[in-house]
Amino acid sequence: MTLTPEEDGLLKLDGELGFATVEAIWEALLEQEQKQVKLDLSKVHRIDSAGVATLVAFMAHAKEQGIEVKMTGASSQLLSMARVSGVDTMLPLSWK
C-alpha cells in the first residue's frame, strides 16, 4: 500500500488497505497538515476491517484537527464493508 500526496491536499492510496499495511498508512495520514484532504481510493484493490477502521479513525482525527475530508473512488467492496460495519454514514464515501 502506498499513499502519494498530490497537489491541493489530494492523497492517492494504491494497493491493499488491511491489517498488514494500516500502520504505515496511519502514520502518513497523521502527517497531513492540509485543512482540506481528498482521499482517492480508486486504486485500493482490497480492504479489510482494519482498513475500514483506519479510515474511521482518520475521520475522527480530522474532525479534532478541523480538517475537511472527502473520499472518492470507493469500490463496491469498501462501500459494502462500511454498510455491514455500520460506519457508512461516518465516512464521506463516493463510488468509483
UniProtKB/TrEMBL annotation:
<dbReference type="Pfam" id="PF13466">
    <property type="entry name" value="STAS_2"/>
</dbReference>
<dbReference type="InterPro" id="IPR002645">
    <property type="entry name" value="STAS_dom"/>
</dbReference>
<dbReference type="InterPro" id="IPR058548">
    <property type="entry name" value="MlaB-like_STAS"/>
</dbReference>
<feature type="domain" description="STAS">
    <location>
        <begin position="10"/>
        <end position="96"/>
    </location>
</feature>
<dbReference type="InterPro" id="IPR036513">
    <property type="entry name" value="STAS_dom_sf"/>
</dbReference>
<protein>
    <submittedName>
        <fullName>Phospholipid transport system transporter-binding protein</fullName>
    </submittedName>
</protein>
<dbReference type="InterPro" id="IPR052746">
    <property type="entry name" value="MlaB_ABC_Transporter"/>
</dbReference>
